[in-house]
Amino acid sequence: MRGCLPRARIRPAAFALAALFSLGVPPAFAAPGDPPPPPAPATSPAFAAETVKAAYLVNFIRFTEWPSPPAPDAPFVIGIAGNRALEDELIRLADRQLVRGRRLRVVRVRSARDLEPLHLAFFDVAADAVPDMPSAREFLPLLHRRPVLTVSDSPAFLGHGGMVQFYREESALRFAIAPDRARAVGLVISSRLLALALIHREEPSEP
Length: 207
Known about the structure:
Rossmann fold; 8-stranded mixed sheet
């Protein structure tokens, strides 16, 4: 459903592969040296979408390179703003697997100081309605020029400068990526991940 995406040049991706990411089938990519991900437990429909989002976020880290990777014994840090169910799913994954030989650490984002250690930040669309919680649009300027992969399910996220935006296409959860924005802060997203995404490129400005 492209209506949720800002006006841009969007390249249709390899949807035969992207079908693996439908709501019933969490991602199962594996990078060299990674153990296979644990099987997902039975989950209620209310949590099914968060289970898939959690698997996506783990794979976004698996297929992104940072300009200054963590020290060998340091974890990848994922920040979650406004979605406790997703936070719980990620903690479950973090307790049971490594990503590229590193642990995952999940932190709750409630203010600017929580952004400091992050490699990936997810802003839930519902967080905009939480009292005293900054909106995704307010958080993004705080991450300007910092190598943090920003992700949200907000329909306007790419339009406000985010890097990855979830959207629904019929019963499937898909995602769009703005790779130029990631590259501008030193992040390199694998072509394997880009092949599963809608690609957002900025329209050239009018002279």
